[in-house]
Every structure is written in structure tokens, then in C-alpha cells.
Design goal:
197 residues; single chain; globular; mainly beta; 8 strands
Length: 197
């Protein structure tokens, strides 16, 4: 019986570029020079936070696409400005050694992350919400005046002038931010690294 051989060279070719990209992204996000942005890959990621609060909230249906052109229907959450406590993002990565988890999270959960023009393309959200200045079934295109990003004319929209959202757990395809300021960022990859939830 022939046993399979493990190639460290092949492992390095797959894993090292991913780790370098992760480190560069982490450093850029920590000093605010790189927006929090994750390309739509073939799989979703998990995003969680203890609390999001700020001004200008919008929700509307949208689509994102994978690199192969496959569309994914999502709920597009937009926030003009947000303070985030306990931010965490994780995703599974396939390697020659098996499935690993890449995880980015706030090193000090009590210190807020500041984000402008935050957008989350989510398929599932679990949270406790508190809205002020709420409008339900508003035309999605009108959300630009509230959150800074609107949907298609005629689509369903939900908007709020002020928001506080606690215990957030979301399955998402994409997260972007116009500006992103986190004073401390912890990045990790490993088989034993737990996902955000």
C-alpha cells in the first residue's frame, strides 16, 4: 500500500501568501490606512460584535457575486457612522493540512472601533436592536439620504436616524468600510482557532 506524502513546499505556496495578505491587511486596518474590506469568495464568513451604535442606518435587498459570477442575494446593511465594541470576523480556509480558521478581532473589546460608511452584505442576522427615527418599507433608493448608500428604486427599505444594535451575529459575504480605525487588532490562523460564534 502506497502512503501519501506531505509536501511542505506545496503547503508554504498555499499558506504563506494568505498569511502575508492577512498581516498586511491587519496592519493597515489597525492604523486606519486600509478600509475593512473582504473580497467575495466562494464561502461566507462570520461577523459578530458586542455592540454597534451610531447614526444613519439602512437595510435593503441586494446581490453580491462570487468570482465565478454566481449571484448571492443578501441584506445590505449600511451605517453612515458607527462605533463598534467587541468586533470579530472569522472565515474557514482550506489548506493541504485541512481546514483552518482565519480570525480578526478587537484586542480590547471595551475600546470602540470607529467606522464610517460601513456596509455588511449579510444572509442571516441575529441581534437586539434599538432604533430611533425609524421608517419601515421606505423606498430603498431613498436610504442614501439616511445611511449614505441606497438600494434599487422600488425595493423595500428600512431606515433609522440613530441605532444601537447589541449581541450581533451575522453570516456575511462582504464587509466594507470607507474608513476604519481600530487601536488594537488580533489576527490568528489555526485549526484550534474558534470562529466568532
Amino acid at each position: 500500500m502506497t502512503r501519501g506524502r506531505f509536501s511542505w513546499r506545496r503547503f508554504a505556496v498555499v499558506l504563506v501568501p494568505s498569511l502575508l495578505a492577512l498581516v498586511m491587511l491587519a496592519v493597515g486596518m489597525a492604523d486606519g490606512s486600509v478600509p475593512a474590506s473582504f473580497a467575495v469568495s466562494g464561502r461566507q464568513m462570520k461577523v459578530s460584535a458586542d455592540e454597534l451604535s451610531g447614526q444613519g442606518f439602512g437595510l435593503a435587498p441586494a446581490n453580491v457575486r462570487s468570482l465565478n459570477g454566481r449571484p448571492h442575494p443578501v441584506m445590505m446593511l449600511t451605517m453612515r457612522s458607527a462605533r463598534i465594541r467587541g468586533l470579530c470576523q472569522s472565515a474557514g480556509v482550506d489548506t493541504p493540512l485541512g481546514r483552518y480558521v482565519v480570525k480578526l478581532q478587537a484586542r480590547a473589546p471595551e475600546r470602540p472601533t470607529l467606522v464610517d460608511n460601513l456596509q455588511i452584505s449579510a444572509t442571516n442576522i441575529d441581534a437586539d436592536v434599538n432604533f430611533r427615527g425609524l421608517a419601515v418599507n421606505q423606498d430603498a433608493s431613498a436610504l442614501r439620504s439616511v445611511s449614505g448608500a441606497g438600494g434599487r428604486p422600488g425595493d423595500y427599505g428600512l431606515g433609522a436616524q440613530w441605532f444601537t444594535i447589541r449581541d450581533v451575529k451575522a453570516d456575511a459575504w462582504l464587509v466594507t468600510g470607507g474608513s476604519f480605525r481600530m487601536d488594537g487588532l488580533r489576527a490568528a490562523i489555526g485549526r484550534g482557532v474558534p470562529e466568532c460564534f
